[in-house]
Amino acid sequence: MAGASAATHHLGLDLGGTNIKWVVAEDTDGAWATLDRGRVPTEADEGPDAVVGRLAGVAVDAVARWPGIGSVGVGVPGEYDPRSGAIRQLTNLLGEWPGKPVASVISATVGLPAHLINDARAFGVAELRLGAGRGVASMIGLALGTGVGGVVAIDGRVHQGHDGTAGEVGHQTIDMDTDAPLCGCGNHGCLEAFVRADRIAAACGTNTVEEAVRRARAGDAVAAAGIAQAGRYLGIGIANVVAVFTPDRVVIGGGVGAALDLFIGPIREQLTLRVQLTPLDQVEIVPAELGIWAGAIGAAIHGAETS
What we know:
The chain is of the alpha/beta class.
């Protein structure tokens, strides 16, 4: 339980469509560890005001459990204004979110500084500090699920750009045809439009990526072909960012990361085909390590480093 100073304990909240996950993390001279965690239903159908109130309530409960908390970070599945702490757009949560204040409400409720971060960037912060990216200076991260979140870390820090949207690896165009698949961002031909979970499942003739992986491992030819196709598209996207950033490590999360052994062959084939200016034996491609808690952990670290 509690007892440490406010400078060492930090709260991270991860707003998801199904659950709000929370983590209390501890910073000991730059070494991060998770002390406590939990989750509550988001109940997004109740609307933005109720969801923001639930986030604030989770923060109140966590501060009561750990009175030494010094800051709050909140991972959100969309765009936000880093100055005001209000939402610009959340694509997968019900209700009128644009302009909805979040950070200021939580800050006023618990009396602590609160800062927003995109959930994919939070995933990247967590993996960089205490997950699969620890120890490297430069990292590219992809979080594959309902969409494809992305993150770029340079010189040991996640690069967010002037508005928090830097690193959207999933929204690079890999097919310039006007009839290319439509992405949720409004563009045609984004990497996400080819390798988000429902697209991979459809290519494999299954309902989910997890089912596709099971069938491919059991020798199902359709599932294996669909996974190979998704791997090729991923390889093209990863090749593009490797050519631009020459990262030490590429970290892949989500269902694809958990089954990276099935995707890595086609990914590596595309890298070999398309990347000519940097030695590929110096670029590691590894699965993420922190699972579903990465977003909350990264939000906690972001809140601490921003406050």
